[in-house]
Specification:
This protein has 359 residues and is of the alpha/beta class. It contains six helices and 39 strands.
Length: 359
């Protein structure tokens, strides 16, 4: 149990009342029960908090008076995290001389291991690998020859780094990720598909995160690069020779074909497909399920398959919704034209005197 006054100090916020009220836990609005604290990021959710069982909330500054206790802060979500972690029991993995490298791990004698590195059971570290300080290699991960891994890196279970992969500092590689596998490049000779050269590598810059089961292919001759701060969701595929810019966000199941380049702060929604050899400019946004078949200029928002600018695509969507009525109207017009043609033909074929009478 924590008193609200204590939580306000931790959150560095302003408490409106009830400093001695005790809080038993922390949860989101939809899951909070009596005695727990929650958080509100906008005025739209404030009423939901008041109607909930939550005893208190961390809220944005300036939301107004509240009958329930609230802690006003500049960034409610970040402040709530600091509070919520007090009610959790996170696993703290401390490295000691006894636990630093498991006796059930396989580590080459040529590997260079930094300080406070933890290597769990089943991990395999092959020849000439270097691992920086405070890095953790989880069970059954495999680091092949010549890889270089920076400081404060976490490589989760069953991840695989192919030879000569370079990993910067503070990188997260989640379970099942494969970094540096062969690119999908073939030449057909004498009716057979022959694998192209695979002598490049993969470079993950600082603060990159690769989601579970994500794959990044090695370059043919040079490096496939994931830029500083870029985050790749689960099951993202990046092809050979790609250069992903800084601080990109690639959502689940994005597939990028070989030799593509992206600028800074590019966002791709789930299941976006990108054709090979394309360039995507800074701050471009590609909405989910789009199929990109041409270059994208900086700042553009694209959607649809084939992907077009959002403005153009919305015009097409609006037009397509009118197609049934347009079809009906065209049929009506065709009937009128047919009737006019019949009248014209009848008039043309009639004797001259009848035409004079008709006139």
């Amino acid at each position: 149990m924590k008193r609200l006054e204590e939580l306000a100090i931790i959150a560095d916020g302003k408490l409106n009342h009830s400093p001695d009220k005790e809080i038993s836990g922390a949860a989101s609005i939809s899951h909070a029960i009596a005695g727990q604290i929650t958080f509100v990021t906008s005025a739209n959710h404030f009423q939901a908090f008041l109607d909930s069982d939550a005893a208190a909330a961390v809220v944005c500054e300036g939301l107004g008076d509240s009958p329930k206790p609230v802690i006003e802060v500049e960034d409610p979500e970040s402040a709530f995290f600091e509070i919520a972690i007090l009610y959790r029991n996170p696993i703290v993995r401390q490295s000691t001389e006894e636990t630093q490298i498991s006796s059930r791990a396989t580590v080459s004698p040529t590997a260079i291991i930094g300080e406070d590195v933890v290597i769990h059971a089943g991990a395999v570290i092959m020849d000439n690998v270097s691992i920086g300080d405070r890095t953790t290699i989880f069970p059954n991960s495999v680091i092949l020859e010549g890889c270089s891994i920076g400081n404060d890196v976490s490589i989760f279970p069953n991840a695989t780094l192919y030879e000569n992969t370079v990993v910067g500092d503070r990188v997260l590689i989640h379970a099942g990720a494969v970094v540096g596998c062969y690119g999908f490049g073939y030449k057909t000779r004498n009716g057979l598909h022959q694998l192209s050269a695979q002598i490049g590598n993969v470079v993950l810059k600082d603060d990159v995160e690769l989601g579970a089961n994500t794959t990044v292919d090695r370059g043919t001759y040079d490096s496939t690069i994931i830029g500083t701060g870029s985050k790749l969701d689960n099951m993202v595929m990046v092809g050979h020779n790609c250069e992903i810019g800084q601080h990109n966000l690639l959502c689940s199941q994005v597939g990028i074909a070989g030799s593509c380049k992206t600028g800074q702060y590019v966002v791709m929604g789930g299941q976006v497909g990108v054709g090979d050899h394309l360039n995507v400019g800074d701050s471009a946004m590609i909405t989910a399920k789009s199929g990109l078949m041409h270059d994208v200029e900086a700042g553009q928002r694209m959607m649809g398959t084939p992907a077009r600018t959002s403005r153009k695509q919305m015009q097409l969507f609006a037009s397509s919704s009118k197609l049934p009525q347009m079809r009906k109207d065209i049929k009506g017009l065709k009937r009128q034209l047919d009737a006019l043609e019949q009248i014209t033909e009848a008039t043309t074929e009639a004797p001259i005197e009848n035409r004079r009478e008709a006139a």
